[in-house]
Specification:
Order of helices and strands of chain B: HHHEEEHHHEEHHHHHHHHHH
Number of helices of chain B: 16
Radius of gyration of chain A: 21 Å
Helix content of chain B: 55-70%
Number of domains of chain A: 1
Strand order of the largest sheet of chain B: 1-3-2
Largest interface: A-B, 26 and 26 residues
Distance between the termini of chain B: 81 Å
Shape of chain A: globular
Number of domains of chain B: 2
Order of helices and strands of chain A: EEHEEEEHEHHEHEEH
Helix content of chain A: 25-40%
Number of helices of chain A: 6
Largest sheet of chain B: 3 strands, mixed
Oligomer: heterodimer
Shape of chain B: globular
Radius of gyration of chain B: 26 Å
Strand content of chain A: 25-35%
Number of strands of chain A: 10
Number of strands of chain B: 5
Largest sheet of chain A: 8 strands, mixed
Chain lengths: 247, 390
């Protein structure tokens, strides 16, 4: 039995401690859902993978839940995830090519914008029709199960400019609570029985065949947010983002 | 629990202490260092990226250069920090992000009469930027939400979950949220009024006619009045009422000893070549009353009348009230008196005459369309009409 302590007139009981432990217990909980269109042909030479500029955002939730994008956390998470993904690709025997960011507000070259925009739209469709919870997932009568989406010829400029076999896209979002919000969540659970969400992350990675434009693999990651100050935490998240990568 | 005015007052007083004021931005400042502002800049940059590649962006170098030029004129030393994007959106709006990313919608360009009126809006947005209103608003919202939560928790803890006044009961949560919403809306209105005053100074300093500032709102009020457009409840409105803004700007203009230009000629040179496209988009929203008022004002001004009468015809054709087919036909015919009438005027005239059971005249209009349009994409459809002629 856990011990109890007096705090004013309220007792820190087992229920309190359990509530306080929830965020920490959940921190380790990360789920991945890889989807593979088809097994890739075995290559005699290392496949060349173009890593697109990742789209990362880390926000902080204040006590009442007002979100603040954190530029410092975002930079740490982005740099760490890119390095983790690069190392994981190397482990798969792939040759990594980094996208050359354009100067200015938009990081992409003009001729690549069509593929970028189409990828975003296709990914949204995949999330709706493949990853939504079964009870909310709409059926597509003319489309069979599995991944059967393509970006078509829009990827040709990427293929030409980088001589790559595949393009890898990464999107990652996470929300982390301030200490005050985490404490408030625990206290409100103890007193009123409802638990405020305190930490959440979602990431999606996709691999595009630059010969055909086909989406060959996607992976959805969901779980608690990572600790951006811990390199091992970011590395682990990067590796999980590439779970089931068919290379 | 009975109604406790004291509780409500305490809530209001607590929220009153949330207003945040930050120092004015100095020109030429690099990236911010404060955590909240860095975060807002990051979010603004992401939004700017999507606008920069948006299909709605008007990619017309002449217009872009013109709008950026007016922006530079009013923002003076801040000019290098502000990037303007014109977006094809059929509504009256402009917005400034905390990092200097600004949007101007085509619905606004249709509803200002000259450069001085456009400068009024751009100067207002510049004021939001230099006074760092977005940061103030964010910090105030955050503090208000936190305080509200703490107050609610305290009330719940003290056993005050519901406040009842007679037979009606309200949860303290609902009351608190309403007070907070009203407070934040009032705060936003104060910022808007401040941006109006500061923006007015900027536009006058840039050499524009002070009297034009208030006319922006006069045009909007006309649309609101004629079409009985809904307005948000005064307590929760984020902007002051247009009438109040008009009066304040009129008062400022009367107190000003400066004179200035309206810049109508340059404004027309930059916008007229694009105006037809923007009007088509306005029509697509099917806010036909607003479109009618807008067209009435533009026709009164007298530029590109062929184009304007064509859209008046389109408005009647789509509205479909009794007598509208005749009104549409008359408007199309009037449009054809001017060289700026689009080629499609002949076709649409043919269509309304066809629907009005006047096949011979319809046939004449369709034949003129085929002749003037020179192998249009819809030639097969028009020929099908002609084959059905008696």
């Amino acid at each position: 039995m856990c011990g109890t302590r007096q705090l004013g007139k309220y007792r820190l009981t087992r229920r309190t401690l359990a509530a306080l432990a929830v965020p920490f217990a959940l921190a380790a909980c990360v789920q991945v859902q890889p989807y593979l269109a088809k097994k890739l042909p075995s290559a005699t030479e290392p496949v060349r993978v173009l890593l697109m500029p990742p789209d990362v955002a880390a926000i902080e939730l204040a006590t009442a839940g007002v979100p603040l994008p954190r530029a410092d956390w975002t930079a740490l998470a982005q740099d760490g995830l890119v390095e983790a993904v690069a190392d994981t690709l190397k482990k798969h025997g792939a040759e990594l090519i980094r996208y050359r960011r354009a100067a200015g507000i938009v990081p992409y070259a003009e001729e690549h914008l069509e593929a970028i925009a189409l990828h975003e739209a296709v990914l949204q469709t995949i999330l709706t029709y493949r990853y939504a919870p079964p009870q909310q997932r709409a059926a597509l009568p003319t489309r069979q199960e599995g991944l059967a989406w393509t970006l078509g010829e829009s990827v040709a400029p990427l293929r030409t400019d980088y001589a790559a076999d595949y393009a890898l896209f990464l999107i990652y979002r996470q929300a982390t609570s301030t200490v005050e919000r985490a404490l408030f969540a625990a206290v409100s659970f103890v007193l009123f029985g409802f638990m405020q969400p305190t930490s959440q992350s979602v990431g999606i990675a996709s691999l595009i065949d630059l010969d055909t434009g086909a989406v060959v693999w996607t992976n959805l990651l969901q779980g608690q947010s990572l600790d951006v100050n811990r390199p091992d935490s970011i590395r682990d998240r990067g590796e999980r983002l590439l779970s089931g990568l068919p290379l | 629990m009975k109604y406790r005015p004291l509780t409500t007052l305490v809530l209001a007083a607590v929220l009153g202490g949330c207003a945040v004021q930050v120092a004015k931005l100095e020109p030429g400042r690099a990236q911010p260092t404060e955590v909240s502002e860095r975060g807002l800049w990051l979010a603004s940059r992401k939004a700017e990226q999507s606008v920069a590649i948006s299909g709605r962006r008007v990619r017309n170098p002449r217009l872009e250069e013109y709008v950026a030029g007016v922006q530079c004129r009013v923002s003076a030393a801040y000019c290098p920090e502000i990037r303007v994007y014109t977006l094809q959106v059929p509504d009256f709006n402009a917005a400034m992000a905390p990092n200097g990313f600004e949007q101007v919608w085509t619905g606004l360009l249709l509803r200002v009469d000259n450069e001085a009126q456009l400068a009024t809006v751009l100067a207002h947005e510049t004021a939001h930027y230099t006074l760092r209103h977005a940061l103030e608003q964010f910090q105030t919202t955050r503090q208000t939400a936190n305080l509200l939560l703490a107050t609610q928790l305290g009330l719940l803890f003290g056993g005050i979950g519901v406040i009842s006044a007679g037979p009606v009961g309200f949860s303290t949560g609902d009351i608190g949220r309403l007070i907070a919403m009203g407070y934040l809306a009032a705060y936003s209105r104060e910022q808007e009024a401040e941006a109006d005053r500061h923006g007015f100074e900027l536009m006058v300093k840039a050499g524009y006619a002070p009297g034009e500032a208030a006319k922006v709102w006069a045009n909007l009020i006309e649309e609101q009045r004629e079409c009985a457009l809904p307005t948000p409840p005064a307590l929760f409105a984020s902007h002051p009422p247009s009438k109040e803004r008009l009066q304040n700007l009129r008062q400022l203009a009367e107190q000003s000893s400066r004179s200035g230009i309206t810049g109508r000629s340059d404004f027309l040179t930059a916008t007229l070549p694009q105006r037809g496209k923007w009007l088509r988009m306005e029509l697509a929203t099917r806010h036909l009353c607003r479109m009618r008022v807008l067209l009435g004002r533009l026709i009164e001004q007298g530029e590109n009348l062929g184009e304007l009468y064509y859209y008046r015809g389109e408005l009647y054709r789509l509205r479909g009230e009794a007598g509208d087919l005749e009104r549409a036909a008359a408007a199309y015919r009037k449009a054809l008196d001017y060289p700026s009438a689009p080629v499609a005027t002949h076709r649409e005239l043919g269509r309304v005459l066809w629907r009005a059971n006047r096949p011979i005249e319809a046939g004449q209009a369709f034949r003129r369309y085929l002749k003037v349009a020179e192998s249009p994409d819809d030639a097969t459809m028009i020929k099908a009409y002609l084959e059905r002629l008696p």
